[in-house]
Write a structure and sequence with these properties.
Layout lengths: L1 E9 L2 E7 L10 H8 L9 E6 L6 E7 L9 H14 L5 E6 L2 E7 L4 E5 L6 E3 L4 E4 L3 E6 L8 H9 L10 E9 L2 E8 L4 E3 L3 H13 L7 E6 L2 E10 L2 E10 L1 E9 L1
Parallel strand pairs: 2-3, 4-5, 10-11, 12-14
Antiparallel strand pairs: 1-2, 1-17, 3-4, 5-6, 6-7, 7-16, 8-9, 9-10, 11-12, 12-13, 14-15, 15-16
The structure holds ligand LBFN2T5F.
Organism: Flavobacterium rhizophilum
Enzyme class: isomerase
Pathway: Amino-acid biosynthesis; L-lysine biosynthesis via DAP pathway; DL-2,6-diaminopimelate from LL-2,6-diaminopimelate: step 1/1
Length: about 260
């Protein structure tokens, strides 16, 4: 079978995009997805995303991690999918789409900046040394010293596989405050099982965690990831956050055909 694929990246979090409006993609073939995402034997990506038809909204998002398993929401992937939908002519400059965590609204401007509404966050668990919440995907957020040289893979993986999060595990974000409303972030991603250059649901969790713990009073927060800058804005009452928007670039990289 020959697949036409498109490669996109959002602040260095990279994805294989497939237009599956014809429903031809074998959605349960975990090995195929993992192989397409493999950086040596395949195209290479942190995840694979299918764009599918939906009768009620502009399109449906189906997200797989690079290990080949379908997973929960991907913020950067959602932003890239909106840019992909625009390129395909499925949408113009705004989108309503459905993903595993529910409905999303997004806008895209002519510079390729995509602003994606994330799900409301109605529950934040605050512990002495970390914060946990679900922003569409589960996220552990922890402030650390020496973020530049921090061993994100080693410590992230030990937290992800620790008893804290059971079999499902969690993504793990390490944070360093650099200004009143600005934070550096590095993320260990579940399903990639490594550090990625950026994680959209992760920086969303970081922005909310920094606000709820009083590290910032701002409701628009700048997050510097290894792959570039993202902004997260929100409204909140206590620890309930709504109108949460994740904003940043989503960029086409290349297109190709792969035989499998
Ligand atoms: N890179 C993503 C997060 C993808 C999901 C995550 N790996 C998981 O399985 O929880 C993002 O930008 O949000």
């Amino acid at each position: 079978m020959q697949y036409t694929f498109y490669k996109y990246q959002g602040t260095g979090n990279d994805f294989v995009m497939i237009d599956n409006r014809n429903n031809l993609f074998p959605k349960n073939d975990t090995k195929l997805v993992a192989r397409l995402c493999d950086r040596k034997f395949g195209i290479g990506a942190d995840g694979l995303i299918l764009l599918e038809n939906d009768k009620d909204v502009d399109f449906r998002m189906v997200y797989y991690n690079s290990d080949g398993n379908e997973s929960s929401m991907c913020g950067n992937g959602g932003r890239c999918l909106v840019a992909f939908a625009k390129m395909l002519g499925v949408i113009d400059d705004e989108a309503n789409f459905i993903a595993t965590d529910g409905l999303h609204y997004a806008t895209v401007n002519d510079k390729g900046i995509v602003s994606l509404q994330m799900k409301d966050v109605n529950s934040v668990s605050i512990y002495e040394h970390y914060v946990f919440m679900d922003t569409g995907s589960p996220h552990h957020v922890e402030i650390v010293e020496g973020l530049d040289t921090f061993d994100v893979k080693k410590v992230g993986s030990s937290i992800r596989y620790s008893g804290l999060y059971g079999d499902k595990g969690s993504n793990v974000n390490f944070v360093s405050p650099v200004g009143e409303n600005t934070f550096d972030v590095r993320t260990y991603e579940r399903g990639v099982e490594d550090e990625t250059l950026s994680c959209g649901t992760g920086v969303t969790a970081v922005a909310i965690a920094m606000n709820v713990t009083g590290k910032t009073n701002a409701n628009e927060v700048t997050l510097n990831t290894q792959g570039g800058e993202l902004k997260v804005s929100f409204k909140h009452e206590g620890d309930r956050f709504n109108d949460v928007f994740l904003t940043g670039p989503a960029t086409f990289v290349f297109k190709g055909e792969i035989e499998w």
